[in-house]
Amino acid sequence: DRDVKYVCDLFLNQVSGGRTVISDQALLHEAVKRSGHRMRVVANPNDVVEEEVDRDIYPRPPPTKSQLKPRPPVVTVMGHVDHGKTTLLDALRNTKVVASEFGGITQHIGAFSVELKSGAKITFLDTPGHAAFTAMRERGANITDIVVLVVAADDGVMEQTVESIRMARQARVPILVAINKIDAPRANVEETKQMLVNNGIQVESLGGDVQAVPISALKRRNLDQLTEALVLQAELLEVGADPIGPVEAVVVESRLHPQRGRLCTIVVQRGTLKKGDVIVADTSLCRVRSIKDHDGKQLTEVKPGYPAEVEGWKDLPSAGEVVLQVDSEKTARNVIKARESKKQLAKQEEDAIAISSKEEQHDREYKEKLMHKRRMGRFRLRSQGPRGKEIIDDDDGTPRINLIIKADVDGTLEALLNTLDSYEEPDCVMDLVHYGVGAVTESDIEMAKSFNGIIYAFNSDCPPKCKDLADQNSVPIKHHNVIYKLVDDVKEEINDRLPPIS
Ligand code: GDP
């Protein structure tokens, strides 16, 4: 069932260009049924070996429970501006059990992990909460396990606090509250808690299940309590990952360094990243040249749940992109090629839609103009031939002929309309009630009936049902396939309507 879900997810994510080999027939049929897509079934997977060269890669099916090993939780800090997110992250970043042997300058690389006195570890994303969260969500990568909602005790719940709550809820990420600035003179922890409850955050001390830790990021008070609460929460969530097999990770931040070139901070989600590995993010390739932590310390490997700054990118991927390991640079280039052509195809489709909608609009405007002209301007046809039939009077007494023209194609229709346009007859009004391309329809007949008009079908059919309707309503339908003959016919009709020469 897990595999079926995976296959369905693949389809739902519109990546059906990929090949999924399923040996179990029943599983396959179930997958196809649930995905609502059609699948090309090949008896022998070797039949499609060539397709595989150009195909994209996708994350593996999710790991089984037995493959999961504990990993540090990934935490995003969110909250209203000035409530102390940066101060808290700075304080946490410098919470070191052992001072770095490098004594190195702590750098901002987008994420860092801390080790607690208990030995437990936590990874914090320190890119601005909202932006990072949105970028990740847009690309479907949700790497945050827990959101720390920072609320200043002297300010309470504010606009961006509410926004943060909404975003975390939408992403189904549990919230842990840090009530900050408890050292501030106007701090009111209880009132802040009440405001949280009013906004749907059921804090523990008021009978709910959301932990709320009162802290001072500035004075570094209760930070241990906060981190321990995070560890507890992670245990409850059974945060885990599979450290074996090809690496899967997510880009948190990327930048260009004047000496070190293109750098990219990733958080590993699965597998273990090592130097020399080949990874792909979107259409960017990287043979991992070096891996460092936020202290600038060289790492030999990165396990799931940990961030690292990776060097060796040929291009810079964007935050939120999924990173996948491949076996060689050749495969990486194939994958990138497949993705680029998919993108190009999508772009072409987008362009085609844009162009056709523009054309449609142009066409519509042109036709409206033409219609207006033909309705308003009276078509004058030169009278010729015999006269003497009874006159159908217009309101002002002028004889009138009402036409409905149907043609097989646009070009003929235009030619017909232009020809009719060139005739003049002051004594008879020619009104083009309706025109169009295609077969005669019931609505054409209805229109002809109400306008007392004649239908001219040029190279276009009239289905028997319409023919019957026309007969019942005495609507004349005239078929032609030569333009001048149709025009002659119209002239004839006009002449029939003109008064006899006395
Ligand atoms: P951010 O916009 O949420 O990142 O907020 P900052 O971390 O930049 O903090 C905004 C202001 O609040 C700064 O002047 C901080 O010094 C101050 N601040 C942050 N935490 C505390 C705290 O625990 N107590 C007090 N009194 N001030 C704090």
Automatic annotation (TrEMBL):
Domain of life: Eukaryota
Entry's Gene Ontology molecular function annotations: translation initiation factor activity
Start and end residues of each stretch annotated as Disordered: 52-72
Record keyword Ribonucleoprotein present: no
Keyword GTP-binding: yes
Start and end residues of each Tr-type G domain: 70-238
Keywords, ordered alphabetically: GTP-binding, Initiation factor, Nucleotide-binding, Protein biosynthesis
Function in brief: One of the essential components for the initiation of protein synthesis. Protects formylmethionyl-tRNA from spontaneous hydrolysis and promotes its binding to the 30S ribosomal subunits. Also involved in the hydrolysis of GTP during the formation of the 70S ribosomal complex.
Family: Belongs to the TRAFAC class translation factor GTPase superfamily. Classic translation factor GTPase family. IF-2 subfamily.
Protein name: Translation initiation factor IF-2, mitochondrial isoform X1
This protein's encoding gene: LOC108562861
